[in-house]
Sequence to fold (545 residues):
Amino acid sequence: MHDFVYHHLLSVVLFTPLAGSILLLFVPREWDNAHRIIGNVFGILGFLVSLPLVRYFDIHLGGYQFQENLDWIPTIGARYHLGIDGISFLLVMLTTLLGAISILSSWSSIQLRKKEYYILFLLLQTGMIGVFVSLDFFLFYVFWEVMLVPMYFLIGVWGSENRLYAAIKFFLYTLAGSVLMLLGILAIYFQAGLKTFDVPTLLTAAQHFPDGLKVWLFWGFFFAFAIKVPMFPFHTWLPDAHTEAPTAGSVILAGVLLKMGTYGFVRFSLPLLPADPAMRTKIIHIVIYASLIAIVYGALVCMMQKDMKRLIAYSSVSHLGFCTMGIFALTPHGLAGSVLQQINHGISTGALFLIVGILYERRHTRLISEFGGLATPMPNFAAVYLIISLSSLGMPLLNGFIGEFTILQGTFEVNKAWAAWGTLGVVLGAAYLLWLYQRVMFGSVTHEANKALPDLNLREYVTLVPLVALAFWIGVYPKPFFAYLEKPVEQIVRQVNPGAYAAEQAKLPSASGKAGEVKLVAEPAAQPANPSAAPEMMPATAQKK
Fold:
């Protein structure tokens, strides 16, 4: 029984939401409550069936676990190959949790076409989980594209006034990146000549490709993932999509869909970096500078927003800039911090969109000027909103601090200037989030309609309390989360930048025990000591006399 569960658990997690959407097809349209109940049951069930992953996942094992590998399309070598490591494990758990919370948050806000809404949302869940568990390029691409269609309709049918414009923009941007990724997948497939789409096999084969080809492959995948994150300057679809999407759509868009881009960077882009130090350094500098621009620019643009949802959308541009900076620092701390910060962003920003949705349900406006003094009629709401704001801006003892601190530590090891610019983003983040909170919650109640606003109801507590609890858990005791990341991060960093571990050894006191003296470890000639460092930051190799 244990073996059966172990070897089929990912399929159960993957297809539970799909089963719900298929069941809803047979429920008559007139049965409004049945659609809501079945949608929520399968949303919660999708989370419950993922909990055994926590029990059975072994943090001491390297490589992929829960693997399923079956023939699918043998003529081209595509297989139904699933598996997760610690990185994809955390993202799958985030997806199932936020999916359940998002569907529950739609209970009263969705009044039109309920049947289609819940069918599409459950289908979206399957697409997102599929991206994180696929170990076959062909299967990965199918799930990557499948996810587009439900999100397009969720924005285009249940969104706000400019929903069609936002939906089409989202679809075209993402599709443009997907086409380039498809070309990259085909290039790896034909260059390797192995008649398989198996991800580990092809990425291993890609290590022996010429550097010139690896550069082209890197940029092909890069544009698909950069648009999805979205990195500067590919970010312009995001504020429109967030602002126009229904509340649950915004939560899942910020919480999970954007992480598909950062996950792609970790899983596919890093192994495709060229070995040549000059080429590699140039690529990494471009990506890091784009990340730093996103951090500072996104935060500055937040200051100018009049719409609460649009402000939080631009904050995602800034926060995801930290994640991409951590990934391409190519250090253990940078990469582990980046993955944890992706989880943190899903928790904090997902909760912020839920909070805006609660206000929108009560007042049918998102304009900051329409609020003020809400702490008086809604004290419990004010307390939860404050915790989530502090979590998002990186207050110690809350989750955002751990992620940002670890990323900045990993970046500082490579280049102090990059870390300094990143720190500016933390300061600006505190400024726009606290200023927003002050304008919405403090002062006197200036609008008559705000004086009798009801406080949080039971359903809203159920959606927000788990996210608050997670924010404190990660902030106070992040060790279990880092434990899941230790093996996969070590495996990736040793592959793309073994010098990072040599640099860590170099910081240990030398045998003489003199304070401040370090032993510098020589590098293998094939890899630069720290490929992401600026030339002046590259550690010299020295020998103790």
